[in-house]
């Protein structure tokens, strides 16, 4: 879940994406040929070129689908509450991986392109094959504050919440029209992909840290495809708010103070970024281990070996990184 504070987060440059094939839902997307066998880095660069070109050239369009004809009509209890807000005004459409529910067609058209782009970038970031997951995810788009407040009250969400992923369904407040300046949507898509392909039992810091990390990379890739100068913007964790890793990696709830919430998001993201940059294969191994229920310290020792034999060793290297405003990797 992304807080209102976290919606002011920085963007980072994405380095992985996947080409977007033509979907059968009426969403205009890019097709391309597979690159010839080449070095892994060239393959990644070619992949992000194809996906970025697709995102830049296709503004999006949606074909309305009656509720009773949607390919997936399995609604969670929370989704049913959402449908109860201005019930007669909801409209519906589908993309390759998502079922969209919305009031404003222009917003849905923009999201239809973004959400598929983010889904592929994040799945590729995790090294996961999305083809093996057939069930679509529902996305509920609110574009009026009053409707969102009503839904938050019905769902008992935190007052600062700007978006939510729950049970394979995404709910978010999204300004009407094209532009989305916050990274709420990719953040929630990251939660979705992470839960699908890693698991739902990971600790809070890893769940939120990966979502922030992946969302920043997605946003930068998406905006750079449109000619914006998207650069890494990684907030520093104030020294006085740095949480020792023994406490951060075992936290089961968000901090109560809003400034501490921001620091929690920042430090969690930076820890994910730091581990992924240190040893990408080791990071994937750590994700697999923690997705299967391993504790962080034991997963760290197995995945990073002698590099970080204990939390104390990791913290000595990580703390200067976390408390510095920008450390590109």
Textual characterization of the structure:
The protein has helices at residues 40-57, 77-83, 105-125, 145-155, 184-197, 204-224, 245-248, 258-278, 280-291, 296-304, 311-322, and strands at 2-3, 91-94, 98-102, 137-142, 161-166, 169-173. The protein is of the alpha/beta class and 329 residues long. It has two domains: 2-233, no CATH class; 235-329, no CATH class. Strands 1-5-6-4-3-2 form a six-stranded mixed sheet, with helices on both faces. Strand 3 (98-102), helix 3 (105-125) and strand 4 (137-142) form a beta-alpha-beta unit. The longest helix has 21 residues, at 105-125. The protein starts with a strand and ends in a 7-residue tail after the last helix. Mean pLDDT is 81; it is low at 4-59.
What is the fold's blueprint, element by element?
Blueprint: E1 2-3, H1 40-57, H2 77-83, E2 91-94, E3 98-102, H3 105-125, E4 137-142, H4 145-155, E5 161-166, E6 169-173, H5 184-197, H6 204-224, H7 245-248, H8 258-278, H9 280-291, H10 296-304, H11 311-322
Parallel strand pairs: 3-4, 4-6
Antiparallel strand pairs: 1-5, 2-3, 5-6
Helix pairs in contact: 1-3, 1-6, 3-5, 3-6, 5-6, 6-8, 8-9, 9-10
């Amino acid at each position: 879940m992304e807080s209102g504070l976290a919606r002011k987060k920085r963007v980072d440059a994405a380095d992985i994406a996947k080409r977007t094939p033509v979907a059968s839902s009426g969403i205009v997307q890019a097709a391309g040929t597979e690159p010839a066998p080449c070095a892994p880095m060239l393959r990644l660069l070619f992949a992000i070129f194809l996906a970025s070109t697709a995102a830049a050239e296709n503004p999006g369009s949606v074909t309305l689908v009656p509720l009773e004809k949607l390919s997936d009509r399995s609604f969670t209890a929370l989704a049913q509450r959402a449908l109860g807000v201005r019930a007669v005004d909801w409209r519906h459409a589908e993309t390759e991986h998502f079922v969209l529910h919305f009031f404003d067609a222009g917003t849905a058209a923009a999201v239809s392109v973004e959400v598929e782009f983010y889904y592929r970038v994040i799945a590729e970031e995790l090294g996961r094959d999305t083809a093996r997951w057939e069930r679509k995810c529902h996305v509920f788009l609110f574009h009026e504050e009053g409707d969102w407040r009503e839904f938050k009250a019905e769902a008992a969400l935190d007052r600062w919440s700007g978006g939510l992923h729950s049970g394979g369904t995404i709910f978010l407040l999204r300004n009407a029209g094209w532009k989305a300046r916050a990274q709420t949507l990719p953040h929630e898509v990251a939660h979705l992909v992470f839960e699908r392909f890693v698991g739902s039992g990971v600790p809070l810091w890893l769940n939120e840290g990966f979502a922030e990390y992946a969302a920043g990379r997605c946003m930068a890739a998406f905006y750079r495809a449109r000619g914006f100068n998207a650069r890494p913007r990684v907030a520093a964790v104030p020294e006085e708010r740095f949480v020792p890793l023994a406490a951060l990696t075992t936290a089961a709830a968000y901090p109560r103070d809003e400034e501490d919430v921001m620091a929690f998001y920042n430090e969690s993201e930076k820890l994910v970024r730091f581990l992924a940059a240190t040893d990408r294969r080791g990071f994937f191994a750590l994700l697999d281990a923690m997705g299967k229920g391993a504790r962080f310290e034991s997963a760290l020792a197995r995945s990073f070996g002698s590099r970080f034999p204990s939390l104390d060793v990791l913290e000595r290297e990580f703390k200067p990184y976390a408390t510095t405003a920008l450390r590109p990797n």
